[in-house]
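We emphasize that the prediction below concerns an isolated chain of 230 residues; any contacts that depend on oligomerization or on bound cofactors are therefore not represented. The input was used exactly as deposited, without trimming of termini.
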Amino acid sequence: MQKMRKLDGMMDCVKKAFLEGCERGDEFHKMRHAIIVELKRLGHEPSEIKDMLLEWNERCEKPLSLSEQKIQLCGYVDWVFKNDCKIGCRACQDYCLGKENCVYYIKKYKSNHNPTKDLPFNFSELKEFLQERYKRDWYMLNMILDAILWHKHKHAIGPIIYISYAKIASIIRDRYNKRPDNMDICRKMKKLIEEGVIKVVEKGKRGMFTRKANSYMFLSWKHPKYHDSS
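Result of the prediction step, given as a C-alpha cell string:
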C-alpha cells in the first residue's frame, strides 16, 4: 500500500512498467529513464529512487548484475538529476495504456487544459461557421485555433498571446499528428484575422531559436447572422 502511494500521479504506462518489470532492450532503457523522471517529479530523493530502481531491476527480464547496476541504474539517477530531465506522453506513446483513463494525462492535459475557457466568443459556434464558409480549409483553421488556445492556457498567458508559426506547427504536430508548413499557417492566420477572430497586436519580435513571432489577441467575434444589417 505504501509503495502504491509513492506512485500516485505517475503516468499509467510508467507505473505498469515499474510494478511488473520490463524486457531488456529498448523498453528497459526507455522505462528506466521514465521511472526516474517520474519519481523525481513526484518528489522522491535520489537515494530513494536508487533503492526503488534496484528493486525494479529484480522484476525485469535478465536483471542487471551488481557492476551494471552501479552504472546503468544508480549512476543514471545522478545524471537525470544533474540534467533536470523531463518526459511526457509523446515520449512514451509506444507504451500508452489509454490516455482517457490515465490519471497523469487527465490531470495535466485534459482537466487542466480547457482551451475554450474565458474566450470572448462561442468556440463551438465559430467552428460551425468556419466549417460552412471554408469547406476545404476549416479543419486546418480549427487546428490552428486549438493550438493557440492550448498554448495560451498551458502557459497561463493573459489576453496577449506571443507565438510563432513554427510553434503553432509543432503543437499541431504533437496534438494532431499533422505537419503543416509555416506558410500554410500564415495564410490561414490571415483568414482568421479577416474574419475578426484574432488580431495582430505586435509584429515580428524574435521567438525561441531566433524565429520571429507575433503577438495576438482574440476578439469578440460574432456570427455574421447576428450582425446588425441596418
